[in-house]
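User
New here, explain this?
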Amino acid sequence: MHHVYHMSYLQAIVIGIIQGIGELFPISSLGHTVLIPSWFGGSWATLVSQESLPESPYLAFVVGLHLATALVLLAFYIREWARIAKGFGRTLVRHRIETDAERLAWLIIIATIPVGILGLAFEHQFRVLFAKPLAAACFLTINGLILAAGEAFRRRNVRLAAAAGVPAAEISALASSPAIAPAAGQPARQTRFRDDAIVSMDAAAERELAGIGWLSSGLIGTAQALALLAGISREGIAMVGGLFRGLNNEDALRFSFLLSTPVIFAAGILKIGDLTGPLGAGVRGPVLAGALAAAGSSLFAIVFLSRYFKTRTLVPFAVYCLVFGVVSMIHFGIF
């Protein structure tokens, strides 16, 4: 059995950057931590071959990277999480739901339960069977098709709304997230929970997310379990689910970040024993270096995507996944 004890700090940092970006971009971090080292070959490919082992030192390393990403997500949305947690607490006291924050708290719980159960039940089996370059390439291609379908559905909604004579302002809301007009006599900043220069979770966005519905939230949470397959993106699945429920790209991104945070964090906590036990004995230094790289790239990804999806779409990510997936299928299928 090969050991990851020989992982270099350069490898740790490169894979950390890949994981931080791939986890939050809708392109699958697990797929890229399988494919990119496999493309490099040599000792890099040896790391990937360990991921499908029953006891994988490389998996212990990847767990540390996931925890770093989850902590960055939690810290960046700490104000939103504080409101959601308070709302959840109020529902326990009053035994009813009254506000958008309270409803959103329960939607996140409903979405987390199915993906958590499926993850606990099938994570090991899926990793052993599918954490291989050719399988990851196939699923990355499927991920591209899923993203393309979500964008096509959103554009169809915009066209139908225009044909039905929906006001231009409402059609614009389907394509992007325009700023909320301030109330008379109030500055715009008072209508927002955070300065829009980076990312906002304004009252309208919270209301949109709270309107997703119980059934849709459960279905999207269940669909997120597909991210157990290397190449399928958890963020992509959640975003496309939000688009099918009528969200625009920016609100769909917010929804995916909120749904992903407890899932990523819980998965990391459940696997933390791998880092503290024998499997982590030889990777703790690289884990620290990789986690710092993952945290930095995760922060970049959050800020970049929050600005990007104000006006742009999933199309580039769909094209990227399709091209890289097909090229990788040809490469690993032949070689």
